Each structure stands twice: as C-alpha cells, then as structure tokens.
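Q: Predict the bound structure with zinc ion.
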Amino acid sequence: MSKRMRKSPKIHHGNVIPRSKNSCNRIIYLDINEKLEERGCPVCRLIRRAEEQMIENILYERVNDPGTRSDLRESLGLCGKHAWMLAHIVKKKYYLDALGPSIIYEDILSSIIKRIENETIPSTGECILCKHASEIEKLYVNGFASCITDRNIIEQYIHGSSILCLHHYTMIRDRIKDTNTKRLFSKVHINKLKRIIENLRRYIQKQDYRTTKPPSSEESTAWIIAIKALKGEPPLGGCY
Ligand SMILES: [Zn+2]
Ligand SMILES: [Zn+2]
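A: Predicted complex:
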C-alpha cells in the first residue's frame, strides 16, 4: 500500500469531526499516530510491541522475582502463543540466552511433578502475557476512539498505510459515541478495504498473458494486507 492513500475521502467543512468531551491522552495518541503510518493493524502492532517488551522484561529483570515466578507457576508457564513468542524473542535478541527460560521452566516442571505426586491435577491459570495484552488492547482501543475526535486520528488513518483488523475496527467503532464520526470512520475503513480489492483485482488481471505491465509491489502483496485486514498481525512478527 502506498504511503499516501490516493482515493481517500477528504474531510470537508460539512464533514468536520466535532470536538469530543472525551480526553485524548497524548502518549497514547503519539503511539497510535506512529503505527498509523505502518502497514497492518495499528492496535495489533501496539499489542505485539507491549507483549515483546514484557517478555524481554521478564527474561532480563524478573526471572528471579518471586511474584513473577509464582504467577508463572500458577499458569504452568505462558500460554502456547506467548511461550513460542518467548522462544522466538530469545532466538532473535543477541543479549538474551537460554538461562532465563531454563530457570523459569525448571521451576514450573518441578512444581508440576509435586502436584502430580500429590495427585493434584495441574490446572492452568491465566497467562500473564494474555492478561497484559488484554489490558493494552483496551488502552489503545479506548485511546483510538477518544483521540479520533480530539486530535484527528481519523485523518492520519486516511493517509497512513495501516489497516485496522476487523476485530479492532469493530471494537473502536462500538466505542465512538458521536454518530457522524462513527459514520465517517466506517466510510474511511470501507475505502481502505476497497483499495485492497482494487489491488487484488489488478494483480489477477495482470496474470493474463496478454498483459505486458508487471504487477506493482502494492498489487502483489495485497493478499497479505487482506489477511491483516481480516485477522490482524502474524503471531510471531516477520517481514509481512
Ligand atoms: Zn488488530
Ligand atoms: Zn498468553
């Protein structure tokens, strides 16, 4: 998708977004604003960033923290998604090694053996990363909905390369109180989806042997953007 959306609707005087009484937190606004420039869902990307920061924080500073160890013991480690994210981060970051995860999982497995010996079925508590991700999601979804009027986030959404996934589009839309703003937000989102469809169609058309012009990178990667628009970001990052 290009940096600037060519077919984006303009906000004319008749379509000006009214000022909201909701307060827009400046830090949240700046975080969202930055991600609106990038490809993919800004909320998913902010959640991913928070998850990665927390995993690094656990491995770097909290391996021996009694509270963290107890939480991890209760949840039998992280859930599948976050445990593999942890493994991915350990492999990716040069300053992390196998020591942190070895200490954590030695502790968890020892605890499970004790529970099995006492004939207690090891039950899984809530993953601390899932809990954190859910709090971050609420923070940014609410932030998006309140900043949409106070600081014209919607204009950034029109012009940036981002596309909200269906889940976060719906969450934000449901939190916008003003009807006109809600309508405008939906219109902008629909135009972004239409733009993906145009690129998909152009790519398909260019597969015809009579076509001499090769597909653009925006057209050949439109299917990836379609997946992002429906399902959000890939669970382990990557170059999409
Ligand atoms: Zn999302
Ligand atoms: Zn989890």
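A: The pocket of zinc ion (ligand 2) is lined by residues 78-79, 81-82, 127, 129-130 (CB under 6 Å).
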